[in-house]
Amino acid sequence: MSESIYVENLTKHFETVEAVDGISFSVQEGELFGFLGPNGAGKTTTINMLTGLARPDAGTIHIGGIDCTRKPRGAQHLIGVVPDESNLYPELSGFDNLCFCAALYGMGKTERQAKAKALLEAFDLTKAAARKFGGYSKGMKRRLTIAAGIIHRPKILFLDEPTTGIDVASARQLRQLIGDLHKNGTTIFLTTHYIEEAERLCDRIAFIMSGRIVRVDTVANLVQPIREKHVMQITCANGVNNFSNRLAEEFPGQNFTSPEPGLIQVEADSPIRVGPLVRFLEDSGAEVAEARRIKPSLEDVFVRITGVGADVMRKEKEKSGGNK
Questions:
Q1: Rounded to an integer, what distance in angstroms lies between the CA atom of residue 168 and that of residue 317?
Q2: 3-224 and 230-295 agree in CATH topology
Q3: Looking at residues 138-149, what average pLDDT do you find?
Q4: What are 59-97's pLDDT values in tens digits?
Q5: Are the CB atoms for 204 and 219 separated by under 8 Å?
Q6: Looking at the domain that runs over 230-295, which CATH code has it been given?
Q7: How far apart, in whole angstroms, are the C-alpha atoms of residue 278 and residue 255?
Q8: Burial of 74 (0-12, 13-18, 19+ CB in 10 A)
Q9: Whole-prediction pTM value?
Q10: What does the DSSP assignment read for 138-160?
Q11: Domain spans of the chain?
Q12: 3-224: CATH superfamily
């Protein structure tokens, strides 16, 4: 399998800020590659350099075998780009926006109109085809923006935060569309704040923090070590105070943490007996509301590697309004 994207020692700084600090990675042909990190990690700066919207200070970029360091737009015919905020025209209809984008890639009138109609139908936007784009809902805007990004049938698609700020139903529909594109052989480079989204969609994932890649691996390899652990969460109605320290003394061999107020997480290499734990907590004055076994996820891996929780990333995204 050949490489669609190859990056080596890529660097970009803005005044005193090292936005991207010497990162290296590759994306295989047909792969769905996730780029996961908190606000300000360097995700959008990286995607801007890969798509020719920003020039790197150092390093090399190859897209589809083309050296884009020397020719930043040399691979434009191979790629489609869906930015985190739509770049379509609010005064044009959905149909006219798609036709305009197709014209930019040199498609003739008959071909671009046929392709626009087909994409509107595929993305469930036929009824809104004649409506101005400015009047679309957020979910509809994201779907049309993706349609515009693939109207020229790119081999490589860059998606920057495709499901941010839209409702649950629209996000689910978009993930299905992304999955279908992947199944049909499109190479996809996806940046996201949402760990569960990356786990669901991606073949491999790169964790980026403060402009540096701290881990790259398949989802299966990332989660396997913690999947071998036994994990339980205990919710206490009256908080957890110093219970974690007291539990560690009483139950050696088990690891106790309190990821949030009122919650105790227990990890062990062997099965965890819930009865003794609950009895000890209640005897110590805790009001145990729930105790449940959980299956560790990519979120747990991300927290261990970066120290940043999924809830922190979501709040950052909401607070920033989408800027990274």
A1: 16
A2: no
A3: 91
A4: 999 999 999 988 888 898 899 999 888 889 999 999 999
A5: yes
A6: 3.30.70.1560
A7: 15
A8: middle
A9: 0.77
A10: HHHHHHHHHHHHHTT--SEEEEE
A11: 3-224, 230-295
A12: P-loop containing nucleotide triphosphate hydrolases (3.40.50.300)
